[in-house]
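Entry 12.
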Amino acid sequence: MERFVCIHGHFYQPPRENPWLETIEIQDSAFPYHDWNERITAECYAPNAASRNLDQQGRIAGIVSNYARISFNFGPTLLSWMEQNSPEVYRAILEADRQSMVWRSGHGAALAQVYNHIIMPLASERDKRTQVQWGIKDFVHRFSRFPEGIWLAETAVDTETLEILAEAGIGFTVLAPHQAAAVRRIGGARWTDVSGSRIDPSRAYRCPLPSGRSIALFFYDGPISQAVAFEKLLDSGERFADRLMSGFSSRRRWNQLVNIATDGETYGHHHPFGDMALGHALSHIEGNGLARLTNYGEFLALASSYP
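Predicted 3D structure (tokens):
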């Protein structure tokens, strides 16, 4: 059975423009940069587009795009700012998605996002539809393709939101493990209780909807995702890779997916040089044949069936 790894980065910043001036004013707390968008771009967004891969002597062995090798989404309002204020990084992100399609059987690394990062279950049906359609339209405008999946702010979801996604042609979304209550095999009668974050995150799940449509759901590995943020895994690329490998189990008899979801800003902004640890972990996994790097769209296409 084959082993797959997918790391998802959720990249987002709230709009910081003064609504009267339509520009971002100087933010002293972001010194020595003009504002926080500019600072985080320098610390995170730009480095992940051209991350340095060092050898054992600390010499630069190569420059790689982390975006092309992971799964990611960028908030539309952040991309709008970046297009005007950091066009080289903006173009590198779009190019990374195109490159990922070459590497991942035609499936791009980029996911769409609900447009304004709102908590979808708290929105009216009309606002939900607007957020999804605006997110899709912005994605198509920038990436020149229809999104296979969409990222929901805080992974917050309800049945109406899933119905709207499926109706719009979205194939999947990513949720937290605590959001699953029970699972069963397709055609089976017996439900298995997986509440309390006990769902197996190593496979995709089909969620049938009241309308008769369905949508695929991925549940990220909670402990490993939290370890990236809070246990200093990014101090060492190899340690990061080892922790990812710990998500596999010899007891499973299917193609396994270890997938994590983290704030994209973790890789360089929250953890300085985290982009290099990410890049090294990916290279270590791929170079040593430990697992196959993938994204959600490719893994879903390769899966022979849902559980």
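Annotation: The chain has nine helices and 13 strands. The first helix runs from residue 36 to 49.
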